[in-house]
Input
Amino acid sequence: MSNVVLIGFMGTGKSAIGRVVAKILGYQFVDTDQMVEEITGLTINQIFRKYGEIRFRSEESLVINKLIGKDNLVVATGGGMTLNEANAEKLKKLGKIVLLTARPEIILERVSRKNTRPLLAKGKNLDNINKLIAERKESYIRCADIIFDTSGRNIEESAEEIVKILKEEWIDEKS
Output
């Protein structure tokens, strides 16, 4: 298992769980949103406000290109990373893809704690969340090797269960 790639909607735990998965596996943790911010010198919100979503998605593509060929990474992606078919294909080559999901009401509770979600600028409500999830669901499922629901689980137990599943899947593949 060279790399683990976490995809899914905002608020499903990609970054928080990814850090713990990386620690358990002894891998390096990489957050693509954080990389975009470091490279551009702008926050995600600033990129969206100043240049729009298209520019942000372009920056995401450049970040994925930088990760290709590296091993022993746990990569937490932006929630819309798989909407770009080229990015989705690159992610598949990068490693095992774990789709993190959560019930919409859980996502709403989680994202309401932060004000850093530009795509929810029109309102953090279930209708907006359900609409965005519906738009992305197909691209998520098309990419996923494993689907894991984080609803009702804490970060540590989610990470431990994901590592267990990954090791079982990986061992089955190698035998």
Observations:
- Residues 155-174 form the longest helix (20 residues).
- The longest strand covers residues 3-8.
